[in-house]
Specification:
This protein has about 400 residues and is of the alpha+beta class. It is elongated, with a radius of gyration of 22 Å. The protein has twelve helices and 20 strands. Helix 1 packs parallel to helix 9. Strands 5, 6, 12, 13, 14, 15, 16, 17 and 20 form a nine-stranded mixed sheet that branches. Strand 9 (about 150-155) and strand 10 form a beta hairpin. It folds into two domains: about 10-70 and about 125-195 and about 290-375, 3-Layer(bba) Sandwich (FAD/NAD(P)-binding domain), CATH 3.50.50; about 80-125 and about 200-290, D-Amino Acid Oxidase, Chain A, domain 2 (2-Layer Sandwich), CATH 3.30.9.
Length: about 400
């Protein structure tokens, strides 16, 4: 902790958002659009071109509550032109070995229309979301952004937090939002620890062309090592395209990352069980470790912890960023209900209590699911197959699972 210096530039805001990733940008837009004077800082400018080094090649399927939040804060009209609607989710169970085609044992499809007369979600490339959000943020009243400047230190007291930034600026804020990732410096400065589970897995993220159309159906193909997920994108240069997340053991993922493109194309075509015809790499490949990480607490004096600073989940079932936006929606609701109490202990205790149960439940389910689907043992493979059939074929179970995916668990 450090105290402010008298000769430094001083700013006073309602909300300071630390972190300029997707969650941080949406948080800044949300609080600014809701009438709170907001400053967002991040030491690194966003990469907004898909072919640039460091570009985030993952995609995010935003579910209906996320869309509702975007409409509420006035950014859906900016994002919607780049959205690919997701009409259904197809889950396919397969068996096979590396180098051989996957054999389909069973498949089921979950239709979005069962829970509403609209798609269950909309898919976006992450780098494209960053580009559009970076462009719209300066147009939102009450909102300032500072890229190239990050969080340095913090002193909190009952009425406000005093934050020193890396450029020496000092910011007095009623609420500091830690949206600065799994290694969050704000969370650490607030004295909040984390519990981390490692699986020995990594995921590859990339875009692929494929021969057969996806028909706006997201497809998760399960086999040992983890799922191979193809999420629909708009056609690229007249060719069918999807965003892929491919989970594997760490060593296998690194081998695939470094594999020559022709061999990689063959490997992913085999892993996809030929459901989309031949697959062809359409971008460079990114690689990410698979962990579950949960913050010990979601709030401290004048600090709210959200998104990956609060929870990191394996990329299964579109839970990651959608859970993050559930955090933001809860925090924003509380702030708008009692603006005079912004960032006080009662508000933050209410936020932490409201979000803890939902986050813990989702983390538990995703963790157990990942352990089952990545296993190569016969017993767990049988459990995976039986579970798929039960979740889909028993209507109350199917409806419960689909509703849980569309909002906080109850």
């Amino acid at each position: 902790m450090s105290t402010p210096q008298n000769n430094a530039q001083r700013l006073t805001v309602d909300v300071l958002v630390s972190g300029g990733g997707i969650a941080g940008m949406i948080a800044a837009a949300a609080f600014g659009a809701s009438g709170f004077k907001t400053l967002m800082v991040d030491p690194t400018p966003p990469v907004t071109v898909g072919t640039d080094a460091g570009s985030d090649l993952r995609s995010t399927a935003f579910l209906r509550p996320a869309r509702d939040l975007f409409e509420r804060i006035g950014i859906w009209s900016v994002l919607e032109p780049y959205a690919t609607p997701l009409e259904a989710l197809r889950v396919v169970d397969t068996v096979g070995a590396d180098g051989t085609p996957s054999e389909v044992r069973a498949e089921r499809q979950f239709e979005g229309t069962e829970t509403g007369n609209e798609p269950f979600g909309w898919n976006f490339l992450n780098w494209m979301i960053r580009r559009e959000l970076a462009a719209v943020l300066p147009t939102i009243h009450n909102t300032q952004t500072r890229y190239g400047t990050g969080f340095k230190s913090m002193l909190t007291r009952t009425g406000e937090a005093l934050v020193t930034l890396t450029d020496g600026t000092q910011v007095a804020a009623k609420l500091v939002i830690a949206a600065d990732g799994r290694g969050s410096p704000v969370r650490e400065a607030a004295g909040i620890g984390v519990k981390t589970t490692h699986y020995g897995q990594k995921s590859l993220s990339f875009t692929t062309f494929h021969d057969l159309p996806h028909n706006n159906v997201s497809t998760e193909i399960y086999r040992e090592g983890g799922p191979f997920t193809m999420v629909p994108l708009a056609d690229i240069d007249g060719r069918h395209a999807s965003a892929v997340v491919w989970m594997n053991s760490g060593p296998r993922a690194v081998d695939l990352l470094n594999m020559a493109v022709p061999e990689f194309n063959a490997a992913m075509t085999e892993r996809s069980a030929g459901l989309f015809g031949a697959l062809e790499l359409a971008s460079h490949r990114g690689i990410f470790p698979i962990i579950t990480q949960l913050a010990d607490r979601l709030a401290a004096e004048r600090v709210a912890v959200i998104a990956e600073a609060a929870h990191v989940l394996p990329p299964i079932g579109a839970q990651g960023l959608n859970t993050s936006l559930n955090d933001l929606a809860q925090l924003l609701d509380l702030a708008c209900q009692t603006p005079a109490s912004l960032g006080d202990r009662t508000m933050l205790d209410t936020y932490a209590k409201a979000r803890h149960r939902d986050i813990a439940a989702r983390a538990f389910v995703v963790d157990k699911f990942n352990r089952v689907v990545r296993s190569d043992t016969g017993i767990l493979n049988s459990i995976r197959l039986m579970g798929l059939k039960a979740v889909h074929d028993i209507k109350p179970v199917r409806m419960g699972v689909m509703r849980a995916g569309l909002g906080p668990l109850t």
